[in-house]
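pasting for ref. prot 1 ->
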Amino acid sequence: MMKRTFCMHATTAVAAALALGIATVVVAQPRFGNPSPTAGSETSQRANDSADQAVYRPVEYMNASRKGPALIVIPGEIKSNNATFLQKFTANNIADFAEVELSAANFQVLERSNLGPVLREFELAYNLGDPQAARKFLGMGKLKSTKYVVKFDILKTEQVASAQQGFDGRAIGNIAGALGAFSGSWGGARAGAVGQAAVGSVQTGESTGVWIIGMRYKIINAETTEQLAQGYTEEKMEVGAKSSSVLGVSQSQQGGVSLDTMVQRLVQKSVWEIDSKYK
C-alpha cells in the first residue's frame, strides 16, 4: 500500500513538473541573437543605448479593464506640406498604429478590410457629414454594431530650431608652428611643428535639430456622423549628431527619435485621452 501511494505521489510530481516546464516554455519571451560584427563593442553599446530610448513601449491605459464600444478607424488627413514626412507616411500608416493602440485599450476595433473596395466612399460619407450615405455602409455585416468612427489627422510637422557648434584646430596649430619657427632655436621650431600637427588634428562638430509634430483626433457618431469630441496633442522630436577627430582617431554618433516612433507616441497619447474620457 505504501509503495502504491509513493508511486502515485511520484507520478503527480512528474506531471506537475512537466506542466510547469510546458508553462515556462509558453510564457517565455522569444530571444534573438545579434549577428552584427561589432556586437558588444563600445560603438555598439552607444548605438544601442540611443536606440533603447526610441524602442516601442506599451502604454497602460487606465480603463483597459473595461470593454469599450465598437468602433472603426478611418484614415485621416495629413495637412503638413513637409516633403520628408509625406514621403515616409500615409494616412493608412497612422490608422494602422491607431488600430493597434485602441485594441490595446480594449476597444472593439472593427477591421477596415470589412469595407473592402468601398472604403473610400465610406470615408467620404463621414468627411462630408452625409449620414444617409454613411448608414448605407453600416448596414453591412459586423459594421452594424459600430458606435464610433475615429480618425487621426497630422496637422503640423515642422523643424522649429537647429543649432551647430564645432572646433577646428588647424588655425591654432598654424599659430603654434609659426611661433616655433620664429623662436630662433632648433628645439623651439621642432616643438612648434609637433604642436602644429597635434593641435591642427583636433576637429569636433555637433549639430541638433528639433521638430514639432502635432496630431488631432476626432470621434464621430457612427449613426448621425456628428462630431462628438476632438483633441490635439504635440510632441518634440530631436535629432542630433556629433563627431570628433584627434591625431587620426575619430568617432561619431547620430540618432534621435524617428518619425515612425513620434507618430506612434502621438497616437498613444491620443488613445490614452480617448480611453480616459470617452469610453
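and prot 2 ->
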Amino acid sequence: MFTLPFTPIFAASAFVYAIEKATTEGKITICALVVVSLFSWTVIITKFRQLYRARKMARKFFAAYRATRDPMEIFRKKLEFDGAPAYELYFVGAEETEYHLKNNPVELTQVQSVNNGEGKKSSGFAETDHLAKSILTKISHASFESVKVALERAASAEALSLEKGMIVLSTAVAGGPFIGLLGTVWGVMETFSGVAKANAASLAAMAPGVAGALIATVIGLMVAIPAMFAYNFMVTTVRAITQELDGFATELATQLEHKYVDNRALADEIRDALRGHVPEAHIEPVPPQLASR
C-alpha cells in the first residue's frame, strides 16, 4: 500500500502519545497555539494574494501611464487598475487636480509681444513642451499645494493598507515559541511534582509527563517558523512597494506641475490680468476745424 513519506511524522505513536499525556495546562496552551496558527495562516494567504495582485496590477498601470504624455489621460479615459496601490494614489491626485481645474481654473491666452521692435508670437507663460503650451486651463500654485497634500495622504493610506495584518505574523513569530515554552515548563513542573509526591523517581514515571510537556514547544515552533519566513518576505515586498509609491508620487507631482500649474512670471500674470479687466483707451476723432489749425 502506498504511503506518503511524511505520514509517519504525524501518525507516529510518539506524537499521539505526547498529546494524550499532556496536562490540562499543556492542552490549553496547545489550543491557544492552534488559534494563533489559524490567524497566522489566514493573514499569510490573504497578504500573499494582496501583494501578488498589487505587483501584477502595478506593472500594468505603470506600462499604461508611461505610454501617455498627459498625466491626466488615464483618469479622463476612466481606465481602472484595481488592486494597484500606485493607481489608487494616481486617482486621488488626478481627482484633486480635476476638481481645481473645474472650480479654481486659471485661464491663459496666447498674446502678441514685441521683441526688439519685431512682432513675435509669445505664449505668455514659461516655455515648456508642446503639450504644456497647448493647455490653456491650469491651476494656481495654491491649488497645487492641496494636490500635493492629497498625494501624500494617499501614499500614507496605501502604505498602511499594505502593512495591515502584519502585526499578527510578528506576534506569531515572537510569541509562538514562548507560549509553547510556557506549556512545556508548566508540564515539566507538573511532572516533577507528581514524581515527588509518588516518591517514584524512575524514567517510566517521568517519561509520559515530559513527553506531554515537550509537545507544546514543538507546536509553538511549528506556528512560528512559517510565520517567520512569510513575515520576512512580506516586509521586504511591502517596503519595495512603499518606496515605489513615494517615487511615483514625486514623479506625478512633477508632471502635474509641469503641465497643469500656472508657472508664468509675475509680470506676465499682471499683464494678462490687466488685459482681461482694463478696456483699451478709446480715442475720439479730431474735429475738422481743429485739424485745419
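The chain has eleven helices and four strands.
The chain has one domain: 10-105+141-275.
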